[in-house]
């Protein structure tokens, strides 16, 4: 296929999906048409049109694969044996152990995709009101971790925000998507009845064609979930996007890898802002604590103080919250270091100590971050 045809096909597909994601005349819920609610576009791994699939394999999605791998090693069965939660602290789900060897054209295609999507958001933000997020699998890597072998999908989460904001990126495997689908089916039988999910395969899970089609099915699956308000705000969907990043960030922070942890805390914060509904009552505060600790350890007191101020705004007058005194103490110390006004935070912290609501000195943000159990 000629390069011009490839780019045209890709652009046509992107515009089609973006226009569906950007529907409505104003803020609030999208007014879904009866046709849209029936989800006519199936998420099953059925045959795509040749041009769409060819375009997808030629640059929009980059991946490593085992085209001729015909053994009985099955990523889905390996996932099933891994237990109910294969994403423990520091398990490497961010893809560090993946065997990455995507072709240069695929890398360029992924970068081009992100630029195209962001350009479209910039041009349309004054004329269209974004109603839901857009998802794009930008790469897929075959991970060999004996005895397991699976595909790790990198997913770009694109939504409303500052014009220069880059899409948040997360990495998930088939078992993560399947667990989300299974949990939502148990809780929301009615709404989930109309939403398809890519079925398991016994063989050829690592071919280019399977990876490409499954990637598109995952995009459609998440898009369908976002289209239903009842599902969009489900705690399990929030956990799918945020919890693995929070766990990995916490693990890296506890081991002193602050720069690596900072990127994950920032991704988790961006995802929570895009999702619109807090994924847990204390997760935004925990995320800000992680950001503040990493910025402070990386000698960026200004950013650390800004995170503390944002957390104090979220806390308001919750004098009994366990994170209030640590944030006040950090804010006082950082303000003193920067030569900024600390009197209000200092007085508030002193009042908590005199009332016996917090010890003197209070626990640090890092101490609470290490003790926090994320479940």
Automatic annotation (TrEMBL):
<feature type="compositionally biased region" description="Polar residues">
    <location>
        <begin position="55"/>
        <end position="65"/>
    </location>
</feature>
<keyword id="KW-0967">Endosome</keyword>
<dbReference type="InterPro" id="IPR039937">
    <property type="entry name" value="SNX20/SNX21"/>
</dbReference>
<keyword id="KW-0446">Lipid-binding</keyword>
<dbReference type="InterPro" id="IPR036871">
    <property type="entry name" value="PX_dom_sf"/>
</dbReference>
<dbReference type="InterPro" id="IPR011990">
    <property type="entry name" value="TPR-like_helical_dom_sf"/>
</dbReference>
<comment type="similarity">
    <text>Belongs to the sorting nexin family.</text>
</comment>
<keyword id="KW-0813">Transport</keyword>
<dbReference type="GO" id="GO:0015031">
    <property type="term" value="P:protein transport"/>
</dbReference>
<dbReference type="GO" id="GO:0031901">
    <property type="term" value="C:early endosome membrane"/>
</dbReference>
<feature type="compositionally biased region" description="Acidic residues">
    <location>
        <begin position="66"/>
        <end position="82"/>
    </location>
</feature>
<feature type="compositionally biased region" description="Low complexity">
    <location>
        <begin position="21"/>
        <end position="37"/>
    </location>
</feature>
<dbReference type="Pfam" id="PF00787">
    <property type="entry name" value="PX"/>
</dbReference>
<keyword id="KW-0653">Protein transport</keyword>
<dbReference type="InterPro" id="IPR001683">
    <property type="entry name" value="PX_dom"/>
</dbReference>
<keyword id="KW-0472">Membrane</keyword>
<feature type="domain" description="PX">
    <location>
        <begin position="131"/>
        <end position="248"/>
    </location>
</feature>
<dbReference type="GO" id="GO:1901981">
    <property type="term" value="F:phosphatidylinositol phosphate binding"/>
</dbReference>
<feature type="region of interest" description="Disordered">
    <location>
        <begin position="1"/>
        <end position="110"/>
    </location>
</feature>
<protein>
    <recommendedName>
        <fullName>PX domain-containing protein</fullName>
    </recommendedName>
</protein>
